[in-house]
Q: What sequence folds into this?
């Protein structure tokens, strides 16, 4: 029984990791840019949810789309204002610019909200589903279900729609895409918008069961990078599987070895997995 | 004397000592600079901000006359009377959550800002490195809030600490549990949950050692890394083992996450003790106070007695920040107060004289606003009169509940948590 609870807890945490990773893997796969500000996008979304709940008194059915919309805007603006230019610079400039963007966002939030921790009321998506002694928090279930839907939607969009083909074409070869009449800038801005919107959905949902602070991205996002890497760069379903796997491994190793050691186990297995499959579980070599 | 070109040229040279001397006489009450290292950004920043607000209030009270607070040293007059009323000026630096940053902060404060003494640095790990720099330069360092026992076991000459520390705290918890046990409550099985920071590990180990020496060993030890993303497995473990009492040694973010996860898992230990730091952070109460009713905490601060020093300082702090003074902030302020008092008694900003004055510190409870039995340092620099009470969260305030003689409210068990 305890094993079932551990595995389900792990899967639910893993779904959160997958949720966190979806936007990251999209931007990574589309543009070969590592967005180090991703955790701070998630943090922004959590504050959007917090402001929406405290000032507009709206529920998750409204503030999750709202956060997605706000972050979509942030993503597009960031692309045109920053990324488009640094894409022409060396790799290091790309890395440091998103890193710097993250710091700006984080310390701007320190400025506005101070260092205090805040939290959404636990009654928004309260309650626990209890089956045979198995306890599942509704807020986490919601995050898990949305993670699955979001992954499916992103995957279908990329593989089954004309828009997806255009996005992939620009990612594959910018010049060739231009030759067949695709304007790369709007496509890449769209990729950033969608990627940031994914972070928006993730942040708003995670805010339901996590604390909110300007540094919260740090606690959450490192594992998202690992998830993306393990899943295969740019592979949306890969991020889902990797997220779930990491969640379950963390949960089991916390129980059997000790919580202080779970990172050792996760990162150890991660290195081993990359040694065997450097392209990630579902990545193309 | 004929006025020649030579005498005219010599005039300023002759006058120079007089002018410089006069300037010195005027400059006597120039500000006394003290360096303060606190975590102003990073995961511990909410606690660091509170400490900074508390110290700002304290310095303001020292620099302006407040006869109504007279029993507290330096309150009645403006500035430091024995230094000609010199004002105290604090240079704040941000130690973040990094012992390395705290170390370079201390170095900069000493070598560039030329502070006469240092105060801080909240996290035991940060205090460890910052005070090592002060020791090297022979600059007094007074710490008001770090509890890792080893800080005063290093044979340092320049390090002083006013807070109760690991062994005092361990004894407090175990005495409290033993006393509760006598009333028929089961306390046989005690679990300790702690992070793997300097603070978490040292306090947990001290509790385990003291418990073992009393033949009541701690039954369970759960550790985790600071600012972790998930604690479901740890809570499940506690739920499965069902200890009679759980002692959490956690910083704010993890304390909040534990309370949220415990509610999700429907787990309430019969007795829940949160060891100060995270649990006494005002933002902990704001974020999850409604899930944490009946949490026990240690505190040396009790502002509930009208007319007491504590109540007066609490009222001033509430006016400044809009929130109640918490234990950690009160302890930081006390560290700074003791340092300023020593500088005043030294009547000098010479490090050696300040150190001697610190060693000779002898403050009584009536001169303090924390519930210490006084401030008096042993040869290691530890305050031997430091002590604390058990307090319990009721609504949005902690009230003292044990020992009974100092209690402002009745102890309520088992832990209520949420409704």
A:
């Amino acid at each position: 029984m305890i094993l079932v609870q551990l595995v389900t807890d792990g899967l639910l945490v893993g779904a959160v990791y997958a949720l966190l990773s979806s936007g990251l893997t999209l931007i990574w796969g589309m543009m070969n840019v590592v967005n180090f500000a991703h955790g701070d996008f998630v943090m922004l979304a959590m504050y959007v949810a917090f402001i929406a709940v405290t000032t507009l008194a709206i529920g998750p059915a409204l503030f999750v789309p709202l956060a997605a919309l706000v972050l979509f805007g942030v993503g597009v603006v960031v692309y045109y204002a920053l990324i488009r230019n640094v894409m022409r610079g060396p790799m290091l400039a790309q890395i440091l610019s998103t890193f710097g963007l993250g710091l700006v966002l984080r310390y701007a939030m320190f400025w506005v909200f101070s260092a205090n921790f805040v939290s959404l009321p636990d009654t928004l998506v309260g309650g626990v589903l209890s089956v045979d002694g198995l306890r599942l928090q509704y807020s986490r279930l919601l995050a898990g279900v949305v993670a699955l839907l979001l992954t499916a939607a992103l995957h279908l969009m990329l593989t089954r729609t004309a828009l997806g083909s255009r996005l992939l074409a620009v990612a594959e070869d910018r010049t060739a895409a231009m030759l067949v009449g695709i304007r790369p800038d709007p496509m890449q801005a769209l990729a950033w918008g969608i990627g940031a919107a994914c972070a928006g959905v993730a942040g708003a949902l995670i805010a339901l069961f996590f604390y909110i602070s300007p540094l919260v991205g740090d606690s959450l996002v490192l594992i998202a990078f690992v998830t993306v890497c393990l899943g295969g760069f740019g592979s949306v379903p890969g991020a889902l599987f990797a997220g779930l796997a990491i969640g379950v491994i963390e949960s089991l190793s916390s129980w059997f070895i000790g919580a202080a050691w779970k990172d050792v186990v996760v990162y150890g297995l991660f290195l081993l997995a990359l040694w065997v499959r450097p392209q990630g579980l579902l990545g193309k070599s | 004397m004929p006025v020649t070109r030579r005498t005219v040229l010599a005039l300023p040279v002759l006058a120079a000592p007089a002018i410089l001397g006069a300037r010195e006489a005027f400059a006597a009450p120039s500000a006394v600079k003290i360096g303060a290292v606190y975590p102003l950004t990073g995961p511990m920043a909410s606690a660091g901000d509170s400490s900074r607000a508390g110290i700002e209030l304290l310095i303001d009270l020292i620099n302006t006359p407040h006869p109504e607070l007279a029993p507290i040293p330096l309150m009645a007059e403006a500035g430091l009377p024995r230094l000609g009323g010199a004002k105290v000026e604090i240079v704040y630096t941000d130690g973040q959550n990094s012992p390395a940053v705290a170390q370079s902060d201390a170095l900069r404060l000493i070598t560039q800002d030329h502070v006469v003494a240092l105060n801080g640095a909240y996290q035991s790990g940060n205090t460890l490195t910052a005070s090592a720099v002060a020791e090297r330069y022979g600059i007094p360092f007074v710490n008001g809030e770090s509890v890792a026992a080893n800080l005063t076991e290093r044979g340092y000459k320049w390090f002083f600490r006013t807070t109760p520390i690991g062994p005092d705290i361990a004894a407090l918890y175990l005495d409290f549990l033993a006393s509760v046990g006598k009333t028929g409550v089961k306390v046989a099985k005690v679990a300790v949950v702690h992070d793997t920071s300097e603070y978490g590990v040292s306090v947990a180990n001290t509790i385990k050692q003291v418990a073992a020496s009393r033949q009541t060993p701690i039954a369970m030890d759960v550790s985790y890394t600071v600012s972790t993303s998930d604690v479901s497995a740890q809570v499940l473990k506690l739920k499965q083992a069902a200890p009679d009492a759980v002692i959490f040694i956690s910083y704010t973010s993890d304390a909040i996450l534990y309370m949220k996860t415990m509610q999700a898992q429907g787990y309430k230990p019969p007795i829940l003790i949160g060891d100060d730091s995270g649990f006494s952070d005002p933002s902990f109460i704001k974020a999850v106070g409604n899930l944490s009713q009946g949490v026990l905490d240690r505190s040396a601060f009790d502002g509930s007695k009208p007319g007491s020093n504590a109540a007066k300082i609490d009222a001033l702090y509430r006016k400044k920040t809009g929130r109640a003074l918490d234990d950690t902030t009160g302890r930081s302020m006390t560290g700074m107060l003791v340092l300023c008092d020593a500088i005043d008694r030294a009547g000098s900003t010479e490090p050696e004289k300040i150190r001697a004055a610190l060693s000779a510190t002898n403050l009584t409870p009536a001169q303090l606003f924390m519930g210490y039995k006084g401030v008096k340092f042993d040869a290691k620099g530890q305050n031997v009169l430091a002590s604390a009470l058990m307090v319990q969260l009721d609504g949005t305030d902690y009230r003292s509940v044990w020992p009974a003689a100092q209690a402002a409210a009745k102890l309520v068990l088992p832990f209520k948590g949420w409704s």
Observations:
- The longest strand of chain A covers residues 128-131.
